[in-house]
Amino acid sequence: MSLAEPPAPNNQAQSGTLVSPHAGLAANHLLDTVLPVRPALIDRGSAARLKPGMLEELMNSGGARAMVLSGRQALINGNSLVLLDAAELALHLQDTAYAPEQLIYLGSALPGSDLPAGTELILFLLPQQFEVQAEEFEAHIAGIPEGAQWAGFRDVAAALNPTDTAIFVEASAIANWHGTHTHCPRCGTATVPEAGGWVRRCPSDGSEHYPRTDPAIIVTVVGADGRLLLGGGGPLDARNYSTLAGFVEPGESLEQAVVREIGEEVGVRVTACQYLGSQSWPFPASLMLGFTATTEDTEAAPDGVEVTRARWFSRSELQEAVLSGDIVISSRLSIARSLIEHWYGGVIQDRVDTA
Ligand SMILES: [Zn+2]
């Protein structure tokens, strides 16, 4: 699907500090301040999946691997996703209570991934009620390693290799979309998946529906004195502090969302912002777009709803507060941590609890 060329944006006109578009520039002309680009590890096969019957064909050809997902949980063995033989699994599950509600093509492993290049991956979306019957399910299926556990992404993300992480994130994103988009938004008829599970079509009016992603901005706000503003919600004595974030509203540019959200949440007036990088966070459907922003303000007034606490930190104050346990900042898995360390200019040492 191609999008029409959008008109030139005019929302950046007031600020001379925003970066120019990168399109068409050689890589060595890019700013060196952006977060590292992590290459895709899975070829999603957007052309291959359009072929009718491609999933069946793939299954019959042998060698395809299956990831199983029930609710938000996947089978994990040690530090790895359990990938089963897809054809065998389909055979085992036939006519059982665990027969997948849907199969989705995830793509094939690219060179550089932790799987042999070309490994084809199919997502088996199991019925939700299966979660409580995991042991019985495992008794039916050959090839599940002893000790394998069902786990959610947050529980295992720190341990997974980059390829398993990519598979789990992609699978979660597409599964969450199917779970909440079962009916046509125009006429209410139940829609039917096609294109390897990447489109749903309404049989009544023929409309096609594509997976959705909700853009959200996440921002390091840096004050006139160079200090970083972090905030948190919940109880006033809570110790967790992070970057501020919020969803982009319809009809709004990313930059406008940054200015609005920071204004709403902590009463700080952003004067300029710059995009640094992004992270898919499909729980349920977010794409986190990381920015750093500057302000002339040195005070903050939390809205008391989304943000109840806000504090400014110099670099040494932040490192000291983390080491002393005064505050806890986002984990290394998150773009929040990358953004904070981008401002910091290096790795922030975590507190090591010896207890
Ligand atoms: Zn319809």
The assigned structural class equals alpha+beta
N to C succession of SSEs: EHEEEEHEEHEHHEEEEEEEHEEEHEH
Count of folded domains = 2
Percent helix: 10-25%
What is the CATH class designation of the largest domain?
A: Alpha Beta
- Low-pLDDT runs of 5+ residues are 6-25
What features would you describe in this structure?
With 355 residues, the protein is an alpha+beta fold. It folds into 2 domains: 42-180, Nucleoside Triphosphate Pyrophosphohydrolase (Alpha-Beta Complex), CATH 3.90.79; 214-344, Nucleoside Triphosphate Pyrophosphohydrolase, CATH 3.90.79.10. Helix content is 22%, strand content 26%. The chain contains 8 helices and 19 strands. The strands form 4 sheets. Strands 1, 2, 3, 4, 5, 6, 7 and 8 form an 8-stranded mixed sheet that branches. Strands 12, 13, 15, 16, 17 and 18 form a 6-stranded mixed sheet that branches. Strands 9-10-11 form a 3-stranded antiparallel sheet, with no helix packed on it. Strand 12 and strand 13 form a beta hairpin. The N and C termini lie far apart (55 Å). Mean pLDDT is 88; it is low at 6-25.
Entry keywords:
8-stranded mixed β-sheet, alpha+beta, 6-stranded mixed β-sheet, globular, 355 residues, Nucleoside Triphosphate Pyrophosphohydrolase, 8 helices
Structure, briefly:
The protein is of the alpha+beta class and 355 residues long.
Helices and strands, with pairings:
Blueprint: E1 42-43, H1 54-61, E2 65-70, E3 73-77, E4 80-81, E5 84-85, H2 86-93, E6 102-109, E7 120-125, H3 134-140, E8 149-152, H4 153-156, H5 162-180, E9 192-194, E10 199-201, E11 208-209, E12 214-222, E13 228-232, E14 240-241, E15 244-247, H6 254-266, E16 270-281, E17 286-295, E18 309-313, H7 315-324, E19 328-329, H8 335-344
The structure holds zinc ion (ZN).
